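User: quick one, fold this
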Amino acid sequence: MADKETVMKDLKQILVEDLFVSIPEDEIKPDDALGEVLGVDSVGFVELLAMVEDKFEIQISENEAASGNLRTLDRLSDFILAKIAAGRGERAVSAIHG
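Assistant:
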């Protein structure tokens, strides 16, 4: 089962290795805005969505993507955990250390 720390680590890895965000993984903060702070552009968001769907085996609708779930790393990780839990018929548990 995925936990928030693991999801955030995976997301940081995707951002740096696949989307070429110039900030090192260990300097990316949970409340950093993906667009304004990390520099993910519209094409990057489309690629991020595809990678997240593939990595976490979830489906993200256009409405879900547009509703602010992709605003920050923290919100995206909570959203992913909720989608995983919903797929299993569970409640999402959100906790981050630090």
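User: anything notable?
Assistant: The chain has four helices and no strands.
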